[in-house]
Predict the 3D structure of the following.
Amino acid sequence: MTPLFSVRNLTKRYGARIGCADVSFDLYPGEIMGIVGESGSGKSTLLNCLAGHLDPDAGQVLFDTRDRGLIDTATMSEPERRMLARTDWAFVHQNPRDGLRMGVSAGGNVGERLMAVGARNYGQIRESAIDWLGRVEIAADRIDDRPRAFSGGMQQRLQIARNLVTGPRLVFMDEPTGGLDVSVQARLLDLLRTLVRRMGLSAVIVTHDLAVVRLLADRLMVMKSGHVVEQGLTDQVLDDPQHGYTQLLVSSVLQV
Amino acid sequence: MTDYNFAYLDEQTKRMIRRAILKGLAVPGYQVPFASREMPMPYGWGTGGVQVSAAILVPEDRFKVIDQGSDDTTNAVSIRKFFEATAGVATTTHTTEATVIQTRHRIPETALTEGQILVYQVPIPEPLRFLEPREAETRKMHALEEYGLMHVKLYEDIARHGHIATAYAYPVLVQGRYVMDPSPIPKFDNPRLESAAIQLFGAGREQRIYALPPHTRVVSLDFEDHPFEASKADHACGLCGAGDTYLDEVITDDRGSRLFACSDTDYCEARRAAGHAGAMAAPYAETQA
Ligand SMILES: Nc1ncnc2c1ncn2[C@@H]1O[C@H](COP(=O)(O)OP(=O)(O)OP(=O)(O)O)[C@@H](O)[C@H]1O
Ligand SMILES: [Mg+2]
């Protein structure tokens, strides 16, 4: 079986400082990879390199494209990469303000990706938007409200709907539940799990929160100082951590 | 005014502007950057259009200026006088006689012909600005034909008003390639963007020139189920009776009486001179007395 996404020896430096170093992994269709690690360990750097927001200094990021199979995303033309970013890929930001258009209605936010790939029927775009608002538990009568009028949890759910509406195959998420109340987090996690499983999505999720990982991730990667110190099946890593740092993490001696 | 070069701008500047114009004509709808010069009038007065006119005028030209369809607003009169003084060109108010027409907010009702040039004054050339304020990003979007955002804007219109409420500066797709802001003309004028004349657009403050060569395909953006409509007030002109022109609503007295009249004053006068009369019109001869 070919991986959907394959990362090989990826390194990103900020001058002399290491962002992330020598990261490799394969992600297979339908798999969810969790990335945990303390603050500054390189999680966001890695995720942004994977999603093409940052150029790595070394290594490869390969994606199983629909038309050309597994190719190095660095060799794609810019239009190709941008097209990928709004069709097969999605990116959920920690702060919904970074992932939403705050001046555009909820319906317009959800419809944007559809229009970007050529949808030109208002009625159909609106129907899809209502359907997707429903799937993220936002009432249909909020469709014409702007995100500003939404709570933090609703904004995050709207961001998720806006990203999933084109049926992407790979979703990147940076702390999707960060900055939310605990009860709101639980609901969002539940929703994410349902959506991801139902759509058979592959995802890379960066988080501080081991509960998020336990609930969502099939596999887990533990980072420290830019390096991957341990990776494997989530249950294995969490129940029988091999690396000293992971042991500290799991025994919650370390507050990440 | 012998201390000025012909049409005010020096030859070097005019060459630079002409190069931008030629590039604009070669790539219809593409916004060409140019080094806008200080003109002896404020930006809101259409310095972009004035610079384009200055660069293309030749002594044999007959120049017309319209502002919202009218030849005799302060703005139109000053620009006309400016070129009378600096270029010594003949001027006219008749669309059919003009070789170069500078306009703000309208396209003349009379179909333009080959050999004529229409110069638009443009305040904001970037149609994507509304939803994407970052200039580097909008340039990339044009380069990669990523125009989904334009439809988001129209979507928002319909969601809020039940129909596409954009009435001015209605965005168009030029020759199947570039999305373009046609300047704040009413959308009623959009169909006439497909013209036999050369159309040049100048934005002074924003330092952009763009162009439509004759007979360029210009399509107003819309949705399948909300097609573009070149709508206008549902009246006939009270003066000339025309039922197919863009109308201004004029308050005629302090009791709130209103008159709908052609915004294109030259067109309206020509019709009245030819004997057409609207419901509110005094006989044409009287108005000329
Ligand atoms: N733009 C930047 N310029 C210089 N150094 C940076 C930059 N961004 C991140 N770094 C450094 O790279 C390292 C990894 O940072 P990164 O943001 O990837 O960590 P993180 O694991 O996402 O942390 P957090 O959990 O706080 O979000 C840190 O040492 C950080 O200071
Ligand atoms: Mg981070």
